[in-house]
Amino acid sequence: MRLLLVEDHVPLADELLAGLSRQGYAVDWLADGRDAAYQGATEPYDLIILDLGLPGKPGLDVLQEWRAGGLSTPVLILTARGSWAERIEGLKAGADDYLTKPFHPEELQLRIQSLLRRAHGLANQPQLEAAGLQLDESRQSVTSKGQEVQLTAAEFRLLRYFMLHPGQLLSKSHLAEHLYDGETERDSNVLEVHVNHLRRKLGREIIETRRGQGYRFSGAHA
Amino acid sequence: MKSIQQRLSLGLISILLIVGLLVAQSSLWLFDRSLRSYLQTTLQDEAQTLLSAFVRGPNGLQLDERRLSAAFKRPYSGLYFRIDFADQTWRSRSLWDRDLPRAPQAGLQAELGDGPQGQQWLILRADYQRFGQQIEIQVARDYTPVLKSFRQVQNLVAGLGLAALVLILLLQRVIVRRALRPLEATRQQINQLQQGQRTQLDQNVPLELEPLVAQINRLLHHTEETLKRSRNALGNLGHALKTPLAVLLSLARRDELQQFPDLHDSLNQQLQQIEQRIARELGRAKLAGDVLPGAHFDCVNELPGLFATLAMIHGRHLQLDWQAPPELRLPWDREDLLELLGNLLDNACKWADSRVQLHISVTEQGYELCIDDDGPGIAAQLRDEVLSRGSRLDEQVAGHGLGLGIVRDIVDAWQGTLQLSDSVLGGLRVQISLPAKRA
């Protein structure tokens, strides 16, 4: 999962970056509204966390610009302005959720998880479930056929992405784009290694390789 | 305060009465005087005639009967004389059995004398020196016909004056009402302002009202601006405080701190208190309350947005409904009302199983807002506690109650009441009664 964090308060951004990385998200960070308006529309993010009080361009304007340009990425607004009038304005501008500062880091985590699930049509699930697997996002482990399997951070990130896109054909470059932030060297061999690790832990049939096209997650019961 | 109309009528009546009476009375008096002075000359003529009727007869002086006017001979004719000379007194036959008392000094008498049959006499005394003797001639003439006609004129004038007064008053009423019509229009506009049906007064008013209307409009504008500015400033302050607070909350979760549970707990507690305090006080400071007369909340425009927001926050498993009379405008500030409804509905959504309903109705006393849910509800004996929990800040417990603090602040500012009861849906009903604003 690749996230864009737009927040101009550096200490908060640092905290959020650290927390989000621990949870296995690849996060790009921007502090200026104009940069965000451009990068948010061009890079393939899975979710955007947007502060409203931004230098350069107000967050609401940035959001409106994105939506006017047809961007459908879920956007979570993060703001100190918590009145209902402002919330309504934010959601009217096209936000998918609204979190007011100050907030507990866990709250943000849960909102991101549920927003991602909702965006992929998996609403109302306490845990991410797909194709016979249950992913515990807080413990970064997976339950397969009643057995809990521990995952490394990289495996967790990869499996989560697969589980949010079950049955879809995902190319290596697509996976790399969504699993690593803009500054990480993308090496498709590393990806192959992680896919193999997942197969070893959860069974060969779980991820299907389509030669020259990419991978397809078909799940444990397939 | 008496009405302007009343004051004008009262003033006009008193002025007209005083002036009218003064003019009528003084003109009567002047007329009386000129009439008396005219009658004085005729009486003098009569006296002259009487004097010239003196003749020397065989028994001394006597009056020549033939020269006397017939009126002196007919009893109570209205014309009389009395002649005193030497020690004799002659009286006209017309006096019959009455006496014409001797006047104290010569000339026309100021007082009218009493005569027979209700007559009132105008009396003139003339002194002459004739035939070597002092002769006093008194002539009297009945003045009652004149007085009677005076009284008639008086009555006529009074009647006419009264009619004129009524007519003038009616006309004045019409004129005043016409002149005050813009005032009435402005009054109605102020009423509409109170009801939230307009935000400005019409500037198109007579010259006299213009400064007042302009001043009211300026004041409205100023209040609105001030409110906007202070809300903005509060928003900025909130931003400035809450962002670092978010950092602190995040820092407090650090693994390094987990090794010191006491430190970690008290840090968390203090941070929570700061957070609550800031939220509550900023929320309270942001309230417009009752200061803005032009404020209004357009249900049809605002409620769909609010409900869409709630649906987004709480997912789609809830059925959210609202009911309000068509085109209802509540006369309170939009942001305040959104805050009130938002908080209450948010709570209802948190507790509800499947349904949340908002019902807004107009009552005789004002407006009623009902929020129903089908959640677990609150036991009757606990409701008072829940309500009072919001009243003191330091008694508030995070995550408990209904977050009613800001709701109570708003309802209090509007002098409304808040009640909890059982809902027809099975859960809790929060009922808010708000008094209509008086004009």
Q: Would you kindly provide a written description of the structure presented here, covering whatever features stand out?
A:
- The complex is a heterodimer of chains A (222) and B (439).
- With 222 residues, chain A is of the alpha/beta class.
- Chain A has eight helices and twelve strands.
- A five-stranded parallel sheet of chain A has the order 2-1-3-4-5, sandwiched between helices. A four-stranded antiparallel sheet of chain A has the order 6-7-8-9, with helices on one face. A three-stranded antiparallel sheet of chain A has the order 10-12-11.
- Chain A starts with a strand and ends in a 5-residue tail after the last strand.
- With 439 residues, chain B is an alpha+beta fold.
- In chain B, strands 3, 4, 5, 6, 7 and 8 form a six-stranded antiparallel sheet that branches. Chain B has a five-stranded mixed sheet with strand order 10-12-13-15-14.
- The chains are: A alpha/beta (222), B alpha+beta (439).
- The interface between A and B is medium-sized, with 29 and 37 residues.
Strand coverage percent of chain B: 15-25%
Shape of chain A: globular
Largest interface: A-B, 29 and 37 residues
Radius of gyration of chain B: 49 Å
Number of helices of chain B: 9
Task: Look at the helices and sheets of chain A and give the structural class.
Answer: alpha/beta
Oligomerization state: heterodimer
Question: Would you identify the regions of chain A where 5 or more consecutive residues have pLDDT less than 50?
Answer: none
